[in-house]
Amino acid sequence: MYACVARAALSAAVPAAAFLFLVAPASGGLVLEIKPGEPTVDTPVTVEAWRWFMESSYRETNTTYVLSQFHIGVEVYVVKDPIGLPVETQVGGTAHLGLLPAGRYEVDADMYLQANPMLPAFEHYDSGSTSFEVTPDPATLALLAVGGAGLLASRRRRHAA
Protein backbone atom coordinates (compact mmCIF):
# COMPACT_ATOMS: atom_id res chain seq x y z
CA MET A 1 0.00 0.00 0.00
CA TYR A 2 1.44 3.38 -0.97
CA ALA A 3 0.89 6.65 0.83
CA CYS A 4 1.32 10.03 -0.87
CA VAL A 5 2.49 12.85 1.36
CA ALA A 6 3.56 16.41 0.64
CA ARG A 7 7.19 17.30 1.32
CA ALA A 8 7.97 20.52 3.16
CA ALA A 9 10.70 22.79 1.87
CA LEU A 10 14.11 22.04 3.34
CA SER A 11 14.87 25.71 3.91
CA ALA A 12 13.60 29.14 2.99
CA ALA A 13 15.87 29.02 -0.08
CA VAL A 14 14.01 26.00 -1.50
CA PRO A 15 10.39 26.78 -2.43
CA ALA A 16 7.78 24.26 -1.32
CA ALA A 17 6.60 23.91 -4.93
CA ALA A 18 9.98 22.39 -5.82
CA PHE A 19 8.70 19.01 -4.63
CA LEU A 20 5.54 17.37 -5.94
CA PHE A 21 5.25 13.85 -4.62
CA LEU A 22 6.78 11.65 -1.99
CA VAL A 23 5.43 8.19 -2.52
CA ALA A 24 6.58 5.41 -0.23
CA PRO A 25 5.19 2.19 1.12
CA ALA A 26 3.48 2.90 4.47
CA SER A 27 6.15 0.80 6.23
CA GLY A 28 9.01 2.73 4.58
CA GLY A 29 10.89 1.84 1.43
CA LEU A 30 11.44 3.33 -2.00
CA VAL A 31 10.52 7.01 -2.26
CA LEU A 32 9.76 8.74 -5.58
CA GLU A 33 10.07 12.49 -6.03
CA ILE A 34 8.94 14.36 -9.14
CA LYS A 35 10.55 17.76 -9.64
CA PRO A 36 9.48 20.52 -10.18
CA GLY A 37 6.29 20.48 -8.16
CA GLU A 38 4.03 21.50 -11.06
CA PRO A 39 5.81 20.55 -14.28
CA THR A 40 4.88 22.35 -17.48
CA VAL A 41 5.96 21.71 -21.06
CA ASP A 42 8.63 24.42 -20.57
CA THR A 43 10.26 22.99 -17.41
CA PRO A 44 12.72 20.05 -17.38
CA VAL A 45 11.46 17.13 -15.27
CA THR A 46 13.49 14.84 -13.01
CA VAL A 47 12.48 11.72 -11.12
CA GLU A 48 14.37 10.79 -7.97
CA ALA A 49 14.07 7.29 -6.51
CA TRP A 50 15.69 6.68 -3.12
CA ARG A 51 15.38 4.91 0.21
CA TRP A 52 16.99 4.90 3.63
CA PHE A 53 19.53 2.22 4.56
CA MET A 54 20.54 1.55 8.16
CA GLU A 55 24.27 1.77 7.46
CA SER A 56 26.58 3.86 5.31
CA SER A 57 28.01 1.03 3.20
CA TYR A 58 25.34 1.32 0.47
CA ARG A 59 25.89 3.52 -2.60
CA GLU A 60 24.25 4.07 -5.98
CA THR A 61 26.30 2.93 -8.98
CA ASN A 62 23.94 3.56 -11.89
CA THR A 63 20.47 4.91 -12.63
CA THR A 64 18.74 4.27 -15.94
CA TYR A 65 15.32 5.14 -17.31
CA VAL A 66 13.12 4.27 -20.26
CA LEU A 67 10.54 6.78 -21.50
CA SER A 68 7.84 5.39 -23.79
CA GLN A 69 4.65 7.31 -24.57
CA PHE A 70 3.38 8.35 -21.12
CA HIS A 71 5.22 5.71 -19.07
CA ILE A 72 8.59 6.12 -17.35
CA GLY A 73 10.53 3.13 -16.03
CA VAL A 74 13.40 3.96 -13.65
CA GLU A 75 16.01 1.47 -12.43
CA VAL A 76 18.45 2.29 -9.62
CA TYR A 77 21.44 0.00 -9.01
CA VAL A 78 22.95 -0.03 -5.52
CA VAL A 79 26.01 -1.87 -4.19
CA LYS A 80 26.96 -2.70 -0.62
CA ASP A 81 30.58 -2.04 0.26
CA PRO A 82 32.23 -4.39 2.77
CA ILE A 83 32.71 -1.74 5.46
CA GLY A 84 30.15 0.80 6.62
CA LEU A 85 29.22 2.78 9.68
CA PRO A 86 25.92 2.14 11.49
CA VAL A 87 24.55 5.48 10.29
CA GLU A 88 21.25 5.92 8.47
CA THR A 89 22.03 6.80 4.84
CA GLN A 90 19.80 7.99 1.99
CA VAL A 91 20.73 6.17 -1.24
CA GLY A 92 19.16 6.53 -4.67
CA GLY A 93 19.42 7.91 -8.15
CA THR A 94 18.04 10.63 -10.38
CA ALA A 95 16.61 10.32 -13.89
CA HIS A 96 16.86 13.63 -15.78
CA LEU A 97 13.99 13.39 -18.27
CA GLY A 98 14.19 16.89 -19.75
CA LEU A 99 11.18 18.57 -21.37
CA LEU A 100 8.06 16.41 -21.72
CA PRO A 101 4.90 16.97 -23.78
CA ALA A 102 1.68 17.71 -21.90
CA GLY A 103 -0.09 14.68 -20.47
CA ARG A 104 -0.37 12.32 -17.52
CA TYR A 105 2.70 10.15 -16.87
CA GLU A 106 2.94 6.88 -14.94
CA VAL A 107 6.26 6.18 -13.19
CA ASP A 108 7.45 2.75 -12.06
CA ALA A 109 10.77 2.53 -10.24
CA ASP A 110 12.80 -0.50 -9.18
CA MET A 111 15.89 -0.68 -6.99
CA TYR A 112 18.37 -3.51 -7.49
CA LEU A 113 20.97 -4.42 -4.88
CA GLN A 114 24.30 -6.17 -5.18
CA ALA A 115 24.62 -7.29 -1.56
CA ASN A 116 27.81 -9.29 -2.07
CA PRO A 117 30.57 -7.41 -3.94
CA MET A 118 32.20 -10.75 -4.78
CA LEU A 119 29.19 -11.74 -6.91
CA PRO A 120 28.21 -9.78 -10.06
CA ALA A 121 24.47 -10.35 -9.68
CA PHE A 122 22.00 -7.61 -8.74
CA GLU A 123 18.77 -8.71 -7.07
CA HIS A 124 15.46 -6.85 -7.04
CA TYR A 125 15.28 -5.05 -3.69
CA ASP A 126 12.40 -2.55 -3.73
CA SER A 127 9.90 -0.85 -6.03
CA GLY A 128 7.44 2.02 -6.14
CA SER A 129 5.10 3.80 -8.52
CA THR A 130 3.35 7.12 -8.90
CA SER A 131 1.96 9.41 -11.59
CA PHE A 132 2.14 13.10 -12.41
CA GLU A 133 0.72 15.57 -14.92
CA VAL A 134 2.68 17.85 -17.26
CA THR A 135 0.53 20.86 -18.13
CA PRO A 136 0.82 23.40 -20.93
CA ASP A 137 2.64 26.59 -19.95
CA PRO A 138 0.22 29.10 -18.30
CA ALA A 139 1.23 31.79 -20.82
CA THR A 140 0.26 29.48 -23.68
CA LEU A 141 -3.14 28.86 -22.09
CA ALA A 142 -3.63 32.62 -21.62
CA LEU A 143 -2.83 33.24 -25.32
CA LEU A 144 -5.31 30.56 -26.34
CA ALA A 145 -7.99 32.15 -24.14
CA VAL A 146 -7.35 35.64 -25.59
CA GLY A 147 -7.40 34.23 -29.13
CA GLY A 148 -10.64 32.36 -28.43
CA ALA A 149 -12.25 35.50 -26.98
CA GLY A 150 -11.16 37.50 -30.04
CA LEU A 151 -12.59 34.87 -32.37
CA LEU A 152 -15.93 34.92 -30.54
CA ALA A 153 -16.03 38.73 -30.62
CA SER A 154 -15.40 38.81 -34.38
CA ARG A 155 -18.17 36.23 -34.98
CA ARG A 156 -20.63 38.26 -32.88
CA ARG A 157 -19.83 41.37 -34.91
CA ARG A 158 -20.50 39.49 -38.16
CA HIS A 159 -23.85 38.17 -36.92
CA ALA A 160 -24.88 41.60 -35.58
CA ALA A 161 -24.24 43.26 -38.95
List keywords for this structure.
14% helix, 4-stranded mixed sheet, disordered N terminus, 48% strand, 161 residues, mainly beta, 1 helix, 9 strands, single chain, rod-shaped, 3-stranded antiparallel sheet
Give a brief rundown of this model:
The protein has 161 residues and is mostly beta strands. The chain has one helix and nine strands.
Give the end-to-end Cα distance, rounded to a whole number of Å.
63 Å
Order of helices and strands: EEEEEEEEEH
Could you say which structural class the secondary elements and strand pairing correspond to? mainly beta
Q: Please outline the major beta sheet.
A: 4 strands, mixed
Count of helix runs: 1
Shape: rod-shaped
Low-pLDDT sequence parts: 1-27
Strand order of the largest sheet: 5-6-8-9
**Residue share in helices?**
10-25%
How many β-strands, per DSSP?
A: 9
Number of domains: 1
Percent range for β-strand residues: over 45%
Quaternary structure state of the chains depicted: single chain
Gyration radius over CA: 22 Å
Calculate the mean pLDDT score and round it.
80
